[in-house]
Structure formats: structure tokens, C-alpha cells
Amino acid sequence: MNTQKILVTAWALVVSIAAVSAQDYSPYSFKADKLLEATSVKNQQQTGTCWAFSCASYLESEVRRLNNMEVDLSEMFVVRHVYRQKCENYVRRQGTAQFSEGGLAHDLIQAVRRYGIVPDDVYPGRKDPSKPFNHSNIERTLRDKCKELVELGKKGELPTGWITAIDQILDEEFGKLPGKFSIDGRPYTAQLYRDYLGIRPDDYVTITSFTHHPFYEPFVLEVPDNFSNGLVHNLPLDEMMRCLTYALQQGHSVEWDADVSNEGFSAKNGLAIVPAKKWADKNEAQREGAFRFVEPQVKATQAYRQELFDKQVTMDDHLMHITGLETETNSGEKYYRVKNSWGEVSDLKGYLRVSDTYMRLNTISFMVNKNALPKDVATRLNLLDDPQASKVDDGKTPVKIKTVRPTATPSFKKASE
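^ that's the sequence the OP posted. Answer follows.
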């Protein structure tokens, strides 16, 4: 091939790539609509405890919102309690229950309701804080011990105090649970500290949208990590999304359970989308521009969402913390700012921007303070004190939600006073 032909061919390729980019793509550009403060990004490291990290982050934001207090909660305090619950559940169900590191947000909330919560420095949950979290060994050890206990039970030989063996394994891995501890010279228990922070576990509800159960009724979510059979409230897709957006607009962050295994999710690029064109069908220029240039996304419908869930394309992969709203200025599409627990990856330092399309199709469920729900939705879900307050929320009228008050109230002031 002569030099002139090479130059012509090269120029044609450049023009072709430029034409594709100009026709199909514009660089992503975002405008912040509502960004809520959150605590620093953490790293769950070599564990499957995203449910604890995301929900602890969510509660830290709740404490900031409720009492303007900065706290760092111990994820491992809750993880240790939930591992114990999983062991008891596994043995009592004769080895037929799910046993893994995974869980859902309501597992942390239920543990906080029952056991309370402590600061991270009171219970770091590892003997050597300089080493990364890694629960592969403890998961295997617990499972093996539980299988052994199940076999003893089948023979009628299960010891009366069998749960003590589980506690010994957990103490060896996580350390003994704290009884009383002090902050600024004031004594606390885990339950008193929970109440001091203003955390009311019964204020939190989980929302989803699936057609295999009636809308506006609660059901047990059928995902493997729902070992505790937690209930979720079922809404039509548009209603679910309205609740999510409304909560953020009112200054409430949201805990999010989602699928992150599909090709449109990229933590390193800080972006989650649902491209209309699959990776295998993209040309070289389109692949080069992935996650840098705006591209068409699929149409997110209720039927398609259900289809993806039933086909196990959308699965219960990962839990994160939604902390804001943004708009992509080229497409006009709404995006959600999400805090992850994989360390400060990407230019967003551990955060992602998640498109409305991705949120609609890949959300398994989300947890929110029921005070943040639109009034008409809260009424229909039977969460309002006033059953007559069924008018569609105008965003201005205060909503009075049923609230369960703590049974114990600390007799001391805030540590900051």
C-alpha cells in the first residue's frame, strides 16, 4: 500500500470514529440537584458484609440528620450477632437454611433493635486492625461446626448448651462483645447508645416493586440472603421510584440493595447504566467511549424488570448507600449518587453515579425512614397515624408517621454538650 493510500485510509478511520462519536455520544456532564452529607468511605475488603457496611453508613447519616452528630458505627458488632443468628437458624432448620456471609439491610436493623450498636473503636471486630477484613475462614469454620451440630441433632445427641460452641468461635475471630463502655466519661451499653443516638429501628421500612406479589402489600423477598425472612413493601415501579426521589429531596438518604454484576456497572469509572447496545455488538470506537460518552439505554418497564428478576439476570449482589440526586445535562436523565464500600476507587473516591434506568431495573429493594415516604404512599401502606390523610403529597405538608418510642431513655446529655 503506498503512502498516499495509507494516509487516506487513516484519515477515513479518524473521520469514521469522529462521526460515530459526534452522532451517538457526548461526554458525560452532571449537575448536582441534591447531595447529602455522609461519613467517610470504608472498605469491606475480603468479606461479603456489604449489607452491614451500607446500612451502618445509612444509620450514620440518619444520626447526622436527626441529631447533627458525627459517629462511626461498628459494622462488626452487628456482623458478629448476625453470624450467630445464622448459625442458630441453620441448626434449628436442620441444615436446610442459607448460610453465607451475605445479608440484607433489615438484618442490621433487627440486630440493632435487639442488641443495640456501639462505636467502631469500641468494637473493631478484629484482633489486628492493621490486617484487612477476611471472613473466608470464619465462614467455613462456622459452617462446618453447624453441620456437625445438625448431625448431632439428628442423632438426638445435641448438647443443651450447643450455642456456646458458636460463641467461642465468634469470640476468637471478632473478640468478646463489650458490656459497658464509656464515651467522654459517660457510661453506655449498646442499647443505651442506640437510644442516645436517636435510632428507632421500627422507623425503617423496605420498599420494592415486583409483579409476582400484590402491590401495596408486604411479602417475604425471595432472595437467598433473606435468611431472616424479612418483609418488604411492594409498590408499582413508578411509585417505588417516586418514593426514592422524594426521600432524597426531603433530605433523607436511602439504603440500596442491587445487582452490580451486569456489564453496565463500573465501580472504577464511577458509573452504572444499562446500555441499549451490548458490549459484544459495539465497534471499537463505541467500546473506547464506554463510560465516557453518553449512550442510549434500554427502556425500563415493570414487565422487563420482572423478566430480568425471574431469569436471574437481576440478582441480589450488593448493598450500597444512596446519598444524592444529579442530572446528566446532555440526556436530561436523573442519576443517583451512591456511596460504595470498596474503598476510594474511581475519580469519585468510592462513589458512583447510577442512572434512573439502572435504578429501575437493578434495584432489588431499598430501605428508607418511613417518615420520608410521600404521604399518600405511607397511608396506603398503613404507616400513617391519620388514615384519612390520603391526598397525594404536595411536598410541603408535614407527615406524622407511626413511631415506636425507645423503651429506655438515657439519663445523660449528648457527648458534645
